[in-house]
Automatic annotation (TrEMBL):
<keyword id="KW-0805">Transcription regulation</keyword>
<feature type="domain" description="HTH hxlR-type">
    <location>
        <begin position="8"/>
        <end position="107"/>
    </location>
</feature>
<keyword id="KW-0238">DNA-binding</keyword>
<dbReference type="Pfam" id="PF01638">
    <property type="entry name" value="HxlR"/>
</dbReference>
<dbReference type="InterPro" id="IPR036390">
    <property type="entry name" value="WH_DNA-bd_sf"/>
</dbReference>
<dbReference type="InterPro" id="IPR036388">
    <property type="entry name" value="WH-like_DNA-bd_sf"/>
</dbReference>
<dbReference type="InterPro" id="IPR002577">
    <property type="entry name" value="HTH_HxlR"/>
</dbReference>
<protein>
    <submittedName>
        <fullName>Winged helix-turn-helix transcriptional regulator</fullName>
    </submittedName>
</protein>
<keyword id="KW-0804">Transcription</keyword>
Amino acid sequence: MKSYDQFCAVARALDVVGDRWVLLIVRELLAFGPSRYTDLKRGLPGIATNLLADRLKAMEAEGLIERREAPAPVGAPVYELTDRGRALDDVLNSLARWGLPKMLGGPSATDAVQPQWVGLIADPALRDRLAPGQQLVFGIRTEEGSVRVTLNKDGCSMERGLDGAVDVTLTGPAQLVGGALSGLVTLAEAQRLGLEIDGDTTLLTELTDAAGASEGDHA
């Protein structure tokens, strides 16, 4: 990775994570935990195979990730974040908050869309509003796929598919799901616009209403 050659904490941080794709690799590993190379490639549409390999090697050298052999039935090497890599969670949450207004117009015709990216909106928007010991498990189902999201005060984790129990499931376009999770639209408004909601909405409504009120305070 190239260096800015500046004795500055911001520049030194960007020396490590400023290259294209690095923070998005961290995003996928924060979402799904230890992942195979093929899993990462799936979650990073548009990245060249050789570039992903180069980025992983550089991130391992910088101490952001480690590579280990996974036991059966995985039977393939997996990559996982180190403590230093996981410390980027707050950085990504801040970027997500900052970037949310850029999503209001919805995806462009050339944008890739994946359900885990929508699910990550819930982390900065809702996590801090959960009480200690409180947990929300929800499903997201879009045209592009589905994920099961577990959210508590410690963070956000995901699994592909909807195996396992959930409190509530949101089904619809990614833009509508993201709008509801961020509090930019209420769940009732999202339903009127076509979002399907199944399950117990009590906690999700409480959290998203609070998120919406907070967005209004900053408007």
